[in-house]
Design the sequence.
């Protein structure tokens, strides 16, 4: 039981190490990219459709909006939910961190502080086979869903913040 319930914590530790090392290839050990893509697609599609509808107003053709949102979201999720896509996202913050002084080291060229997306996250088991690490962000709570895949726990979904009403 201890081995089983410590699985999500081991996965989070492994993810932290992979992210700090900017080792996108080792992310596959901790992320089920197939499940992640299928779980993220409807969330992203809904966001895009809401955005298009808000811009076009109530007279817009719902079917056309749905098709456009699906095409855009499928391409976006397929590009992002891969080891290479996550690697690019992880590299993308390096210049910002150096420019803002969020660095470590004493040398002439300081290194950006490693990213840790789980800083400040709180977690809980929703069931014996689902653990959610929730991180409060400016846009709302983001939930990283871990489920067992064989003997390892992996991220299978990222629950995006609920869209704001208004």
Sequence:
């Amino acid at each position: 039981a201890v081995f089983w319930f410590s699985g999500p914590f081991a996965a989070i530790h492994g993810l932290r190490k992979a992210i700090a090392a900017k080792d996108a290839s080792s992310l596959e050990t901790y992320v089920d990219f197939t499940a992640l893509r299928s779980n993220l697609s409807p969330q992203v599609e809904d966001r895009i459709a809401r955005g298009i509808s808000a811009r076009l107003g109530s007279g817009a053709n719902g079917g056309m909006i749905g098709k456009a949102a699906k095409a855009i979201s499928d391409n976006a999720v397929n590009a992002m939910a891969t080891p290479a896509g996550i690697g690019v996202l992880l590299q993308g913050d390096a210049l910002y961190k150096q420019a803002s002084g969020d660095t470590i080291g004493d040398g002439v060229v300081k290194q950006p502080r490693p990213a840790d997306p789980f800083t400040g996250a709180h977690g809980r088991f929703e069931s014996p086979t689902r653990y959610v690490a929730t991180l409060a962000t400016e846009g709302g709570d983001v939930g990283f869903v871990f489920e067992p895949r064989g003997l390892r726990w992996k991220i299978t979904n990222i629950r995006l913040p609920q869209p704001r009403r208004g």
About this structure: The chain has a mean pLDDT of 79. The two ends are 45 Å apart (CA to CA). The longest strand covers residues 140-149. The first helix runs from residue 2 to 5.
